[in-house]
């Protein structure tokens, strides 16, 4: 390989015969003034950036007139004094911080739920539950999980205290919510979530809500669901139902 040609220092400092160039490294709204050897490679500059920012070289995207090649020297790619080097990338801690809010949010929601009084004591639900258990409620089996029955689940109340029945049309992937007035035919995929809670004093029955829109205001409440079917209902509606 030919020896590097002598060059004028561009006004940079000489350090033991090595020509330095002044750079502005910009990362994450931070600016660093750096003097670096012109005959160092892009890979070596990444190591320098690591020492400044804590950002591992493998997680750096370094830009100077395009992506900085790791195997070429700064001289070869014509870096001059005052050049701006843009760095994109996140530290391990940043990545973890981005990944954890979801878990943290879920924990906060659970904590909030724990602080709240049980659903069945809330006023909107009390007015239905205080009517007592419907005369034609389906029998419950405590401590057992059963598959959905082949007949509709009936003998339950909705939040206005009217009778409601649930029919699971698996071949059409629909849940039919039927009242005396009408039957709503809902695609399973349109139901965002299913929540349930045992009814105090009647733990073998649950109150259950189907989330039909983006917020809690869209919950369709059903009361006196036999406990043995609760898991099967959730699995079926949320897409975990299997054909065997």
UniProtKB/TrEMBL annotation:
GO terms for molecular function: cadherin binding; RNA binding. Residues 21-88 form the Ubiquitin-like domain. It comes from the Eukaryota. InterPro entries: UBFD1, UBFD1_C, Ubiquitin-like_dom, Ubiquitin-like_domsf, Ubiquitin_CS. Pfam families: PH_UBFD1_C, ubiquitin. Coiled coil: none annotated. This is UBFD1 protein. It comes from Sterrhoptilus dennistouni.
